[in-house]
Amino acid sequence: MHHLALGYTKQLSVSVCVFGCRWKMIDKHKVLMLADPERIFEKGLETQNYSEALFNHEKALEIYESHSLSAYNHCHEKAVILQGIAYVHLLTENYELALVNYKNALTIGLTAPQIISTSNIIGLLYKNQFKNYSEALSYCEKALEMYENSLTHYTIAEILYNIGTVHHERKDYELAMFNYKKALSIQLTCLPVNHTGIANTYYRIGIVQQVLQNYCEALINYKKALSIKLKYLSSDDTDIADFYISVAITQSNKKIIFEH
């Protein structure tokens, strides 16, 4: 039976890490969503045939469930399949089913790093799709609490950044700033100075500083973000346009403040 279930997984090329599912954030800003399921089934996904991908995931899950296996390895396999099902639903924007399957995966057989990444994904779903900021914070903070002996500094920064965005959405700007700055301090120690993640954090800090009418600080952070983004994007990219707009608005506001 175990070999039959794995037949559905192996034909899909296992052990593929998933990064790069992007989410629309406020101000048209795109932020990389942390995701790290140990196994995602490529067949169907690589051709964007999501029905086929979902069929193979669910068939493997059906086999595992029909035999009521309880050993850790089998529970782990089942949890990873649930992550795969959730990911397909995420790709097809079926967010409620994505959330259900990610939460089910949390209850069985995941490793500590998988629990952390899945908690983070659930937190982002609650924030971005369901606007349930209390639940979003709960899951993101759970991921952060588990970090200390399990995650790299970069992952801590990602989680802190995500917590910052939740506070940002709630208009709790002081806490948003606190978490963004903590994320930035870690990013600056473990990432190349021109990494786009650092640019994203500078930009977010700039937004908060602008809201708080700290225009000089906002301008400094916007310009730092822009200088990094220009190394990776063409000058006519729409993201670059957003950065220029932010700089221009802040300069105007700064001028108005100092003229009065």
TrEMBL record:
<keyword id="KW-0677">Repeat</keyword>
<feature type="repeat" description="TPR">
    <location>
        <begin position="157"/>
        <end position="190"/>
    </location>
</feature>
<dbReference type="InterPro" id="IPR011990">
    <property type="entry name" value="TPR-like_helical_dom_sf"/>
</dbReference>
<dbReference type="Pfam" id="PF13424">
    <property type="entry name" value="TPR_12"/>
</dbReference>
<keyword id="KW-0802">TPR repeat</keyword>
<dbReference type="InterPro" id="IPR019734">
    <property type="entry name" value="TPR_rpt"/>
</dbReference>
<protein>
    <recommendedName>
        <fullName>Tetratricopeptide repeat protein</fullName>
    </recommendedName>
</protein>
<feature type="repeat" description="TPR">
    <location>
        <begin position="199"/>
        <end position="232"/>
    </location>
</feature>
